[in-house]
Batch of 3 targets.
Target 1
Amino acid sequence: MRRNFCGRTRREFLWQTGAGFGSAALAGLLSQDGFFARAGASDSAKLPQPHFTPKAKNVIFLFMYGGPSHIDTFDYKPTMKGRDNQTVEVKTFGRGGHKNSGRIVEPRWDFKQYGKCGKWVSDLFPNLAQYVDDIAFIHSMTADSPIHGSAMLMMNSGRVQSGHPCLGSWVNYGLGTINGNLPGFVVMLDPKGGPISGAKNWSSGYMPASYQGTIFRAQGTPILDLKAREGVTRSQQRTILDSLHEQNSEHAALRGNRSELLSRISSYELAFKMQEHAPEAVDIASESADTHQLYGIDQDRTRDFGTKCLLARRLVERGVRFIQIYSGGAHNDDNWDAHADLKQNHDFHAGNTDKPIAGLLEDLKRRGLLEETLVVWGGEFGRQPTAEYAQGTGRDHNSYGFTMWMAGGGIRGGTSVGATDELGAAAVEKPFHVKNLHATVLHQLGIDPNRLSYFHSGLDQKLVGVEPIEPIHEIIS
Amino acid sequence: MPNGLYCWGFACVLAVIALFMGHPADVLGQESTIQFSNDIQPILARRCFACHGPDKAEGGLRLNSPETISVVLESGNRAIVPNDLQASAILERIRSTEEDTRMPPEGKPLTEIEQQRIARWIEQGANWKQHWAFEPLSNPQVPIRPDGTTANNPIDAFVEAKLSSKELAMSQRAEPRVLLRRLSYDLTGLPPTPEQVADFEQRAAIDFQAAWETEVDRLLASEHYGERWARHWLDVVRYAETNSFERDGAKPYAWRYRDYVIRAFNEDKPYDQFLMEQLAGDELPEVTKDSLIATGFYRLGIWDDEPADRELAMYDGFDDILTTVGQGLLGLTLNCSRCHDHKIDPIPTKDYYSTVAFFRNLTPNGYGPHVERPLIGSPEDRAAYAAKEADIRDNGNRLQMQINEIEAMLRQELESINTTTDQFDLDDMEYRFFRDSFQKLPDFDSLKPETVGKLEPPLLDISLATRPDDFGFVFVGKLIVPKDGEYTFRLDSDDGSRLTIDSKVIIEYDGIHGTGRPQRSGVRLTAGRHDFRVDYFQGSYGKGLQLDWSGPGFKRRSLTRQDRKSVDLNQVLQSAAAEILNADHVAQFKKLRRELEENSKRKPWDEYGMCVSESGTSAPQTQILMRGSPQGKGDEVQPAFPSILGGGVPSIEPNEAAKTTGRRLAFAKWITSPDNRLTSRVFVNRVWQHHFGRGIVRSSNNFGQLGDPPTHPELLDYLATRFVQNGWRPKSLHKLILTSRAYQQSSLASSDVIEKDPNNDGFNRFDLRRLSAEEIRDSILVANGRLNRTMYGPSIYPELSREVLASQSVPGKGWEKSSYQDQARRSVYIHIKRSLLVPMMSNFDFPEPDTSCEARFITTQPGQALGMMNGDFLNQQSMEFAQRLATEAGSELRSQVARGYLLALSRNATNTEIDRGVRLIETLIGKHGLSPDVALANFALFLFNTNEFVYID
C-alpha cells in the first residue's frame, strides 16, 4: 500500500486533479496556464507510471457476446466425430441448470491445421486462421457463472456482482489516458443492441464516472452530445465560448483563481477541441480502398464489424488505451448464444467477424502496432458439448471450460495453453480463471495486478480480488 | 471521501510540499501531548500492520496491541520501550536512510512529522488508548476564550479554539446575498428568488442575526428541504428502483421509500425513530404505514434473480445489508470481516456473522407477497383489511352460488339440444412459468417468472412450458366449490408438486420422482370460491402433472388439461348456440359473470409497499463461513452486538403478530440507544458534511482506523451529545450549525491563510461548492420558470435519446414516457434504473447506486461541457428561458439580459455584463444570422454554462 498524498495513493490523487476522460489534457492546459508551475507540483500533471516496463500500450478486446462454442472454433476435439446423438455421462451447468448426462452434438465444422505451429482451427475462421502464429490460445478458461448477466459482469469487472469498475476503467486508472481529446475507454456496440445489463458492462463502479466506458458510434456522431446542434456553426459556438471565457475568467479572478474554477474553464476549451478531433478519428473515408478491403468494409456482411475494427486501429494510433468491440447484441441469436440452431448461429456471427479480425491483425502487424497492442478475443463463457434440448443442435452455456485468445502486446504467438477434457466440457489441464486473464492484461500493460488498488468500502480493492493472482506466464513472451 | 475532492486534492499537494520544505526541527510545534488514537494508531495501521499486525509478525513484531509492541524480537532488540528512546529500535529503523534497513520498506519513508510523533509518543510513555471512535462519547466543555468570554454559538467556540492554536482566525462574514444563496441551496437544493434576496438584504442591513434566523427557519420549514436532504440519505442507503443484473427489473413501490424519507425530514422525525422504522418498522409495538414502507430499506440493494450459486447469492444479500448498516449507520466497515478478521479494526469474523444472524431470517428480495405487502398499520387498518377481504370473499361466494344455479339450468337446456359442455371447477386462473433447474420446489414467490399468463381454459397445463426440461410452474386462481362438504384431491406429478387451498398446504409431493403413485388428501370445504394454488417443477426426463377431485354429488373430475376435452360454457354463450337458450338466463348469467369478475378485481387494500418480511418466528441457524464461502461452514453463532462497540447479547422476543424473530427490533434498539458510540456521531458528521462540504471526519462511512481522524474531535462529540439530548431532531442540529459564524464565513481567503491551512482543516473559510447533478438540473428549471413542484409519487422518466437507449439489450425496456410537465419535476423524482442512469446525472457525478456512497465525487471533465452546450435538455430549456425573458423583460435587449442574470444568478448584472450579453446576442444575429429568438436562447445557454451558475460561494 502506498499512501502519500494525504493518505491517498498517487493514482487516487491523480484523478482528483482530473485524471480520466480528457483530464491529462486538462492537466496539460492547466500547466500551460502556469497553474501547476505556480503550485510547484508540475510533475503531478504527468501520467501515472506503470509498475514495470510495459509490453503493451493499448488493448483491443473483441467481445464475442453470448458465448462462442470453443469445440466448434479453436478447441479441436477429433474424438467427438461420429459420436453425434450418443448419450454420455457428463456434468454440465448452464441456464438449464445442472445435468449429469446429455446427448452429444458433435462439432459441426471441419478443422484444418494452419501456420508453423500447426494449430487446428475450424472452418468458421478461414481468414483468422492465417494468423495462428501470432496468437496464443487459452483453452482452459473458467468463470464463476454460466448465466449471461453475472458472467458478463465477471468478464468485464472480475465480479459476478454489479457495482465494480470494469477492466477498461482499471487500465485508465492505472495508466491514465494519453490523448485528452478522446476518451480512454471506448466501447462499440453491435447494431442489434447492447449486451444484457447494458451500461453495467462499461461502468466505472465505485470509481469516478470519468473512468466509465464511452460509447463510440461507427456512424454519425461518435460520442453523445459531441456534435453541435443542427445548424450551429463552429464559429457561432466559438462566439458563445468567448463570452463564456470572459465571464468565467472575471468570476475566477474575483475568487483568487481557484483551481476548480480554472479547470472548468479549460474543460470548455477541451470540449471544443474534441469536437474537432473526435470526428477526425472516425473518418475512415481517409483510409485507402485496400485498407477497406482488408477489413471487409467493402462487403455488406463484414462492413459493420470491419468498420469498428478499423476504428479500433485508428483509436489505438491516437492513444486510446482500451477499446472494446461487441460482436453480437440484444438477445438469443442476435448474438453468439446458440441455443437453437448452432450451425446457423455460428456461421452467421463468425462470418461477420472472421475477415475483419484477420484484417485488424494484418493491419496492426503491417504498421508495427501489434507489438504494442494487446488483442483479446472471447465471450463471457463457452458452450456445452451436449445438446440443450431433445431436438436440435443448440448448446447451453458452459463456464467450466472455454477458449479465449490473445495476440500482440508481448504475447507469445503460436502457443496454446491448457486443455479441456475430451468432450470440452470442463478445463482439466492448467485451468485458468477470468482473473488470470485480467491479470495478464494488466501485466502486459506494465501493471502489477496485485498492486493496482483503489481504496473503497474500507478495503484496498483490486480488479483481481484480495488473493494474489498470477498472469498466464505460459503465453507471455 | 470528502466532497469537493477536486480542490482538496490540489490542496494536498501544497500540504506535502509544506512538510518537506518546512523546518523539521519543530514541526510538531504546539502538539505537546500525543494522542495515541489520532496521532499514532493511523500511522501504525496504514504503514506497519501489513507486516507487523494482526496477520503477520515479521521479525516477531506485532504493532497492533500494547502487549506485543515491547516483546523481545528475533533480532534481540525491542521495537518500543516506553519512556526510553534509546532502547526503542523502531526509531532507528524509521529514520534510516538506507533502503535495506528503512521501515516501512514499501513506499515513501514516514514523514518528519510522523517520525517525531512516534518519538514523542514513546517519550511520553507509549500509552495505548483505544481508537477514538470506539470510545464512548465524551461530553466536552465548550472552550472559553483566553479573555474569559465565550462565543455566542458553541460551534464557534470549538472552531475558534482550534484556529487560534494555529494562529488563524475565521474569515469575514460573506455578503448577505451570497449567504442566502448558499443557505437556500444547502437546505432546499434550489436558489432563492430575486425578491427573497432583495428582501433579505434589506432586513439584514438592519439586524443581521434576526434576519438570518428568519431565513433559516423559513427554509427549514420548506417542503423542499425534505427533497434535498432525503437525497443525501438515499446516497447512503444505495437507493435505486431496479435490481441490476440481466433483467434489471423494477422494484415494486420503491418510490414509496423515497417519499417516506422526504416526509421524515420534513416532519423532523427524530433520527432514532427514523432508524427504528427502517430496521424494524414491522416489529414495532405500533406498526404504521410509514414504518412498513421504511423497511423497504432492506430491499434497495442489487439482486440477481438468476444467480449461478443460490446460497452464495443469499449471503451476498446479507453482505449488502451489513455493508450498508455498518458503513451507513455506524461508520464501520464490518464488510471487511466477511472472509477473515478485519485487518485493521478489531472486528473478528465471528462478529460479522453474529451481526448477520440479526437478519438471517429475512425473506429474499424479489416479487410477490413477501415483498409487496398491503400497508396495514393500525389495528383499525387491520380490522378494515380483514373486513374488506371477507366482503370480497363473501360477495364472490354469493355470486358464484347464483351462477351455479343458472349454469345448471343452461347446461340442462344445452344438453336437451345435444351440445355437451363441461363445467369448470377452476376460475380466474393465472400461470407463472419459471425457467431454471430445481431439485425441489423453490420459494417461487422470490423468483422472477419468465412468463405470466391467463390459463384458458382454466385447467392446469404444463404444456405451456417453453422448454422441455428444467422449469417450474405456479398456477393460482380460484376453486369453485359447489356445496359444503368433504372433498378428496388426488395429485400425481413428475417431478415435485404441491397443492395449496386457502393458503393451507393440502398435498405436498416434493422432490424428484416419477408418476404412478398419486398422493391423496381429504379436506372440508364450504361452498364458494377458494384460493387455489399448485406449485410444480420439472427436472429432466419424464414429466407430468395430474390433479383431480371428488366430493358431494360428483366423482373424479379432473383439474388438469391433457385428459379432458373441454368446451367452455362461456365460449358456447359467445357463439350462435346462445340464441336457442333462454335469453333471460343467458343475460343473467353474463351479468353475474361480469359482477364476479369485477369482484375478483377488487383488492382488499388500496395501498401496497415494498417491505421486509421474515419467514416465521424462528430463524435458520447462522454459521461462520470460512473465507466467506458457503462451502466452508464453521461454528454456529447467535445474534450478538459487535464486541468492538461493547458487545453484549440482545434480548430477543419473537413477534407472533409480525411473524418475525424479533431480532431486528433488538438490533434497532441497540443501534438507537443513546449509549451507542457511533450512531449519533456518524449522523451528526453527515449533517456537518453537507453543510461544510466535508465531514468533521472526512471519511464519513469509515470511522475506523483507516478512516480519517476527526479534525475537531471535541466538536463532534459535543454535537453528537447535544443531538441525542435534544431528542435526535435533525432540524435543531441544522439550526445550531447554520447560525454559527463558522458557517457564515466568506469563501474568499487570503493566500496567506490558504498557505497556512491548505486543506481548510480548521474551517477558517467556506469552501466553494459545485452544485450536485440534481441541483444543476433543478436550477435550470427554476431559472426558466418551468420547475414543476409536485411532490411524491411514482418516478418520472426524462426523455433519453435513441443513442442512449441503444445501449440496452432491449432498447427502451423499463424506460417509460413522462409528460413534458412531469419531466420538469425535481430531479429527486427521476427513476433510478441501475443499468440506465440518466447521462446528465452521472456526468455530474450522480453515484453508481450499487453500494453506499458517503460523498460524491466532484469531477470536471469535457463530457460535462459537451452535454451543457450541445445536449437536448439544455438547449430545450434555454429556449424556454429565452421565452420567459422575452415575456417578462419586454423587447428591450438590455433588460432581457439583465433579467437573465438576475434569474440565473440571483444578482443584478454589472454594466460590463449587460454589455457582454448584448454584444453576444448582437453578434449572433449580425454575424451568424440567427433570429433574435434563437440568439436570446443562446444567451440563456451561455448563462447556464457559467461557472457562477454551478459553483456557489
Note: The longest helix of chain B spans residues 379-416.
Target 2
Amino acid sequence: MGSLEVSALSKQFGRAPPVLHDLSFRYEGPGAVGYLGPNGAGKTTTLKLLVGLLRPSRGHAYLNGVDPMVDRKRALWDVGALIETPEPYPTLNVHEALDAVGRARGLSRENVDREVDRCHELLDLPPLGQRIGWLSKGQRQRVALASTLMGDPSVVLLDEPTSGLDPAERVLVRRLLNQLKRDHLVFMSSHQMLEVTEVCDEVVFLHQGQVLLRDRVERVAGRIRPRQVDVEFERPVAPESAAPLRGVATEVAVLSDRRWRITFDGSDETRVRLLGLCQGLGPVVQFANTSLVLEEAYLELIPKAPNET
Amino acid sequence: MIPAQSDPPGNAQSGAVPRRRVSDFDQWRTVTFLQLGHYIRTNRFYGLLGFVVLISGLTLAFEADAGVAAVQLQQLYRPSEYLSNYLVNTGLFVVLAAAFFGGDALSVDFSTGTGYYMLVLPIRRPVLLAGRYAAATLVTLAVVGVYYVFGAAGAVYFFGAPSVPWSLWLESLGVAILFALAALSVAFCISAFIRSPSAGVLVTVLALYVGFATLQATIELAGFEPWFSLSYAGGAMAAVLDTDFVHIQNIPLGEDQYYTIWAATVSEGLEIMAAYVAVFLPLSAYLYQRKESTG
C-alpha cells in the first residue's frame, strides 16, 4: 500500500523566511489525510516538494519510499498528483490528454481506453473528443482529476481538489474520494472543512511552515466544544421569551420569529440546560452547531495574524 | 493508517489496473507524439506555414512572370545557382520555426499550468525535453521542407527536372536539418532559462536573427573570421549549391586597404552547427532539470 513521508523537510526561497521548517510526518494507506492551514502556511509547497517540483533546502520527501530528487520516475510511478491548476495543452482533446498520462504510467492501449472509460464514468467527464481549450473551468478540473486517477495509483495527492467546481461537482468528488480512500492513500490540502470532515480520517494543521497538530478527525472533534448553536422552533416564538436563556447564554440573537442563534461557554452542561429551556418555549425542530467542528478547531488552533481582528 | 515500521517497496502499486514497466524510450515516443499533436494544431504552425507558402509562392510567381529565359540568364543557366540564391532565406524560416516551437518549449512548464500536468508524471525531465525537442524538430523540418519543395519546383519549372542537381539539393536539406537542430538547441536553452514563454520566443528571434548577425558583422569589420556564429554557419545551406563559392573575399576599400568577408565552407558550417548542438542541448537539459516550479 502506498506511503508518503517527509523527514526534517525545510524550504526557503532566497533570503525570505522559511516557508517550511523541519517538517516530519509519515502516512501509509489506505486512508485519507486532510492537510489544513491558512493561505501561505506551506501546504502547496509541501505537495510540490513531495513530487519534486521544488528542491528541499534541507531534509527529504519520499513517495512510496523513494526520494523524487534521487529517482523521479520511480518515486512518481505509483502516484497521482493534482497540484495548483494543471492544464493539458488546449489543442488536445480529452481522450488525448488522458491517453498520454496512461501511456506514461505504463498502461497498454487497451487499458488506457478502459481507464478513460472508468474515469469518464466516475467524474462525469465532458465528451472525450472535445478540445481542452473549449472546456469550462470545472470540466478542466475534472479532466485534471481524471489524469490523477489514470492507472489507479496507490498514492493520490490533491491540492484543493474541489476548487473551481460547482456544488454538484463537489458532491461528486467527495463521493469519489470516499470510495478512493478505502484502498488508496489520499493526501489532500483543502480550505473546505465540510469536504475534510466528510472524507478525511486524519488531519494535519499547518501554520507558518510548522505542524501545529496531527490527529484523527474524531479526536480533534472531541477536543473542540462549539460555542454557538442555532435553534429552530416548530412555531413562531416571541422574542421576549428569550429572557430566561439570557442568564445561561452569553448572547441570544433572534434571527427570525422561529430561529435564534445562541452563544454560550461551550460546555455540555450549559448546552443541556439551554436545550431544556428552549424545549420549554415550544417544540424544537433543530438544535445544531452553527459551524463544523473542524472549522472551530481550525479557528482555535490557527493563531490570528497581528493585524487581524 | 499508522506510521509504517519499514519502507514499502519503491514501485508499490494498488494493483487494480495492470501496468507494465515503461522504458524511457517509450515515454519519449509518448511525449513526442503528444507534443507533435499539439504543435500541428497551433495557430503559430499554420501561420508560419502560410508565411513560407506566401513568400515562396510570390517569389516563384514573380520569376515566372519575368519569363523562363530571363531567369535562366539571370542565374547564368545554372540550376544550382538558382537553388543557391533561392535557399538563401532558409535561415530566416529555421530561426522563426525554432523560436516559435523551441522558444517556449520548456518555460511553459514553469509559467502555465502545463507543468502541473506534465511534471508530475513519472517521466524523467531529460526524456520530456528530448520528446519536445524531437517534436519541435519535426515541425521545423515541415516548414523548411515546404520551402525546399517550392525551390525544387522552381528549379524544375525554369531548368527542367533532368538538369536539377538533386543530390546537392538533398545535401543542402541535410545541412538545413543540422542548422535546425542547432537553432532549436539554442532556443531550448533560452526557454529553460527564461520563465516567460512570450519573452522566450522574442529573445530567441532576437538572439538568432539579430544578435548573431550583428555580432558577425562587427567581428568581420574587426578583421576576424566569425567562426563561432551560428548565422555564419547557416551560410553552408546555400554554399552547398554555390558553384562559385568563395571562402574569403577581400573587397578593396582604397590603397592597401581591404574589407574581408568570410563565408563558411560546408564542413566548417557543419562543425559549428554540431558544436552548438553539443553545447546547448546538454545545457538545456541541465537547466531544465534544476528548475523549480515556484510560481
Note: Residues 24-204+274-290 of chain B form one domain.
Target 3
Amino acid sequence: MFQLSEEGKQKVLAELKRYESRQSAVLPALYIGQKENKGHITSEVIKELSRVMDIPESQINEVFTFYTMYNKQKIGKYHVQVCRTLSCMLNGAEELTAHLCKELNVNLNEVTADGRFTVSEAECLGSCGTAPMMQIADKYYENLTPESAMNILRGMK
Amino acid sequence: MAQATETKYLTEFYHLPEFKGLDGYKKNGGYKELEKALKMQPQAIIDEVKASGLRGRGGAGFSTGMKWGFLPKNNEPRYLLCNADEGEPGTFKDRMMMEKAPHQLIEGMIISAFAINSKKSYIYVRGEYDDSINALNAAIQEAYKAGYLGKNILGSGFDHDMDVYRGAGAYICGEETGMISSLEGLKGQPKLKPPFPAVQGYLRKPTIVNNVETLAVVKYVIRDGAAHYRKFGTEKSAGTKLFSLSGNVVKPGNYEVPLAFPMKDMIYGLGGGFKAGRQLKAVIPGGSSAPVLTAEEANRATLDYENLAQMGSMLGSGAIIVIDDSNCMVQCLANLTHFYHHESCGQCTPCREGTGWLDKIVHSILSGKGRPQDIELLIKVADNMKGKTICALSDAAALPVLSFVTKFRDEFEYFVREGKSKVKGTAFAPKGGAHVGH
C-alpha cells in the first residue's frame, strides 16, 4: 500500500491552502505523489491523495489520466524524453531516438533490463532552436547528435 | 542579401547574466516603470496600452487594451493570468524571456494588474519548463522582499500577490479557457465562449489571460509611451516581436525585429540561410497551426498580422519553421497530424475523431499504402473539422493538412502512386499508424 511520507503529506496540505480553490491543488499533489512513488502513479497513489486531500478519487483520477507528465506505468531511473515534433524531426530526432533505443537494447516506453532508462518520445518541448534535444528529469540537453546523446546517458550514475 | 539586424527593444539586456536577478535588473532600469505606473490613473495605463496598438503575442493577435476593456466596471475581484504554457510547435521565445528576464515579466504583470485592479495573478508555466519555473519563483521571492509584491506596494495602497502554477503536459492548456480549467485543478478542457474569461474566468471570476511577451511589453509602453512604441512596425501591426526561428536554417534562434520585417531577411539574413546545396522549400510562419507557405510565398512575405493573413496564413506565436528541399512534405505533415491527434482534448467529436482520421490517413500514405481517393478524403475530413468545435484546436489541426495537401499536392500524389517519397533519399521508419491516447 502506498503512503505519503510525513514531508510529502505536509507539502500536499500546504498546496491545498496555497490557491484560491482547494481543487487547484490536485495537479501539484499528483507531482508530489509521483515523486514519492518512484516516478509513476498507481491507483494506490490516487487513493492516498484522495484520503489526504479529502477530494474524491474520481476527480483526481480524471486529472491524472488527462496530462502526459504523470506517468501511467513504471519508468526507469532516468526518463529520457526525446522531442519528436517537427523542428526536432527536421534536425534528426528520429535517428536520435532509434540510436538510443538500439544502444540501450530497449523499445520505446520500456524500462531497460537494469532499470536505469526509459526512452520515450515527447511532443514539442520548446527547444526548437537547439534541436534535436532530450529532457532527462528537469534538465534539457540540446544540440544533440546520436553519439553525444548516448555519451550523456553513459555518464549518468 | 542586405545585412539584416535585430531591433533589441525588449531583449536589450538579455546578453547580461545579471539581468536575471533583482540587482542586475534594477541596475538596467528595472522596476522604474512600476514606480511610474503606480502614480498614474489605472485607466490612463489601459488607454496607453490601447493606443500603443499592442496585440496579443501568444497567437491570436487580439488588441490587449481592448481585451482589458471587457472587464466588468465594478469592484468584483478579478484575476490576471499569464499564459506561459508555451506549447505551439516551433515556439521557444517565452522560455527565453522567463529564464533570462523573469523580473521583466513580473514588472509588466504588476503594472497590468494595477491597471485592471487585480489583486492576484498566476503565471501558468508548462510543466516541462523547470528552469523557467525556478527562475520565476526566485524572482517573485525577491520582488516580495523588495516590496514590489504584497501589501501596499511602494506605499501606493495597491496590494498584489503573484504565484506560479505548473502545468502537466497538455498543449490544450495554452488555450485560455483550457488553461483556466487546468488552474482550477481539472482536466484542461476548454470552455464554451461566451462568457469570455474577462467576464467569467478562473473560479467564475473575471480573468484576463495574456501571453508572457505581451505582459512584458506593457512596461515599455509605460516607459516610452504609445507613440514611441508605434514607431516600430506598421499601423495595424505595431511594435517589435520576438520570432522563434527553427528548422533547417543555419542559425536558428530567437530574434527580435519590428513587425513587418521581411521573411526573406529573417531566413537568409538572421537565420544564415541553408546548408550548402540545399534550398528553401516551405515555411510554416506562425507555429505549426499556421497554414504552410511555399518558397515563393515566403520570399515575398512580411512578418506582420495583415500580410500573413492576406497570404492565407497567420503570424500566430511568431514561430517560423523552415523546411528545406531535402525533406518530404508527406513526412512533415505526418509529424504534425500525430501531434494534433495526441493533443486533442477529446471533448468535441469533430476534433477527437477528425484528428485521429487525419493522422491515420497521412500515415497510411506515408507507409506506402495510400489510395488515390485518400487525398480528397483528407481534404473532406479537414473541411469538416473547421469551425465546429469549442476551441480552435480542431481548426489548427485542419489548416496544416489543407495547406500541405493543396500546395504540395504533387508530393502526396507521387507517394500514393509510387508508394514512396518523391524526395530522393528520404528515409522513413513509419511506426505503423496513429498514436492512440497518451
Note: The CA atoms of residues 167 and 351 of chain B lie 22 Å apart.
